[in-house]
Amino acid sequence: MAEIQIREGKAPFKVSSVDEPCFTYYKIVGDLSSGTTPVIVVHGGPGAGHEYLLTFADLWRDYGLPVVFYDQIGCASSTHLPQKAGDRSFWQEQLFQDELDNLVDHLELRRGFHLLGQSWGGMLGSAFAARRPPGLRRLVLASALASKELASRGTHLLRDQMPLNMRQALNEAEQKGDYDSLAYKDALDFFYRKHVCRTDPFPSAELLPALKNLSEDTTVYRTMNGPSPLTADGSLNEWTVISRLPEITAPTLVYNGEYDTSHDLAQVPFFELIPRVRWIIFPGGGHMCHLEGGGLRERILKVVGEFLAQKETADNMQ
Fold first, then answer.
1. Gap between the Cα atoms of 220 and 96, Å rounded
2. What is the pLDDT of residues 10-33, one digit of tens each?
3. Does the keyword Hydrolase apply (predicted)?
4. In a domain, 112, yes or no
5. Is residue 37 part of a domain?
């Protein structure tokens, strides 16, 4: 079993339209000099921070794969930019692509790395992979979305399955622009428990940091997504990676849960257009399969670990 090693740091990140110095916080579990390809884990939200994905730290323990976690700019332990709240032109995909490129170079990983993106992290990861960045070996898209339009269609299908009174509360909140009513919060709680994380009780220790990050600084999530997963009106509304998917040459694993907020509709383009791809739907799973019980957490780690640890051959090297 690989010895657990943890190293933290900050990568300076120059943002052209920001006068103050910025940085990206990162945490490395394992030894980057071990000779095995490290895995960079890209969190969702946007703005959730890395903590809820620490399940994947076990890739080092179980498969000897070093794991790099990081907090994207604007949230958690990286530089916060509250002065950019509501600036839709600033909070765009390119900013986060630049940050990821900067982190790869800072950690000197161009010799080879895997990428695992969850939710929004998978959206960013698929766009990043489509550029064929030097060093990218394998890609995991965990509960990701190929486009916001398909995501919205999937969300509406899930909304249609909710009790009538909850649907009415959602519609009323959106019409009034008031998302603080008890009825809206009850509907949101129902949605979270059925589709986001299906473990009861919630795995608070793992999820609490993400919820805290999202609630204490709403700059990134509110600007890019909207007031909630059920009400999206942010800068990502027109986002799509579909036309870029055929450019991804890295072998790719796509997965989502049976009840996932990342509906099957939003996975189909990944499966149809990425040249070398495998798609798995985990029965009984929600958006946070990697935190869920009933053996799901263990199955996710096994599938991801075995995919990333496969022997690398010349035809899958970048």
1. 11
2. 999 999 899 999 999 999 999 999
3. yes
4. yes
5. yes
Structural domain contains residue 159: yes
For 171-209, give the DSSP string.
HHHHHHT----HHHHHHHHHHIIIII---SS--HHHHHH
How many distinct structural domains can be found in the chain?
A: 1
The residue written with tokens 């059920």 in the block is: 230
**Nearest-CA neighbor of 120 among 44, 194, 28, 179?**
44
pLDDT tens digits for 53-102? 999 999 999 999 999 999 999 999 999 999 999 999 999 999 999 999 99
Cβ count near 122 (within 10 Å)? 30
Summarised one tens digit per residue, pLDDT across range 193-235 is 999 999 988 887 889 999 999 999 999 999 999 888 787 889 9
* pTM of this structure: 0.95
Strand pairing report for 277-282 and 113-118: unpaired
Q: Would you name the residues annotated as active-site residues?
A: 119, 260, 287
Asked if the structure places residue 316 within a domain, the reply is: no
